[in-house]
Amino acid sequence: MSWIQDTLYVTGRFNTIGGVPSGRVAKWDGSRWCSLVPPDYFYPDIVALGSFRDTLIVGGSFTIAGADSIDRIAQWIGGGYTSACGITVGLEDTLPDAANVSVHPNPASTVVFFAGALPLGPLPLMLYDATGRMIRHTVLGPDRTMEIDDLSSGCYVVHLPNQVVLRLVVQR
Questions:
Q1: Strand, helix or coil at 80?
Q2: SS3 string of 89-152?
Q3: 139: pLDDT confidence band, cut at 50, 70 and 90?
Q4: Residue 164 has what pLDDT?
Q5: Residue 80: what are its φ and ψ, rounded to 5°?
Q6: Cross-strand bridge partners of residue 21
Q7: Of 7, 11, 103, 110, which is the most exposed, with the fewest CB atoms less than 10 Å away?
Q8: How high is the pLDDT of residue 113?
């Protein structure tokens, strides 16, 4: 998995994601999965994703990407196939007040702290995994901490009051 700005990119040995036929690499835009390439675009496998600035880099054992000969690494520069998206399965991603709120450390492994322009009193929080499934609905106390040692490594989305949406990376 790799984050570039507000988009999660994933790769794996899957032929579909979110009901969309896929060429083993897809993106999550906060509310739906989109395939980046048609099925069998990369042959045989993608084994790594990374980013350089705002560019997705794909690495693997492939020597062909579509009709192009490639030597095991490719830069994804966009394309018309990104319109192959599934139905919306999560919440629409909005970040109006997120600049005034932070979660740290990030990445984290055991506990995270929320700081910034947060309302006083109990703070409701919803935590979603990368598929858009809500995995936690809790209320933060005055210390504004949340234990995360029960979560698997990966990328999560935190929804707080007033449409504040934050990214959280759990790393073990």
A1: helix
A2: CCCCCCCCCHHHEEEECCCECCEEEEEECCCCCCEEEEEECCCCCEEEEEEECCCCEEECCCCC
A3: very high
A4: 84
A5: -70, -20
A6: 16
A7: 110
A8: 95
- Residue appearing with tokens 């192959």: 84
Q: What is the pTM of this model?
A: 0.47
Exposure of 29 in the CB half-sphere (CA atoms within 13 A): 14
62 vs 144: CA distance, rounded Å? 46
Closest CA to 128 of 172, 171, 91: 91
The 10s digit of each residue's pLDDT in 141-165 is: 999 999 999 999 988 989 888 778 8
Cα separations in angstroms, 151 against 17, 36, 93 = 22, 28, 22
The residue length of the chain stands at 172
pLDDT digit string, tens, across residues 75-108: 776 655 544 665 444 444 444 445 588 999 999 9
- In single-letter form, the type of residue at position 22 comes to S
List the CATH code of the domain at 98-170.
Answer: 2.60.40.3080
CA distance 82 to 75: 15
Please identify which residue in the block is written with the tokens 């040995």: 13
pLDDT tens profile 28-42: 877 778 887 776 666
Angle at 136 between CA 161 and CA 33, to 5 degrees: 85
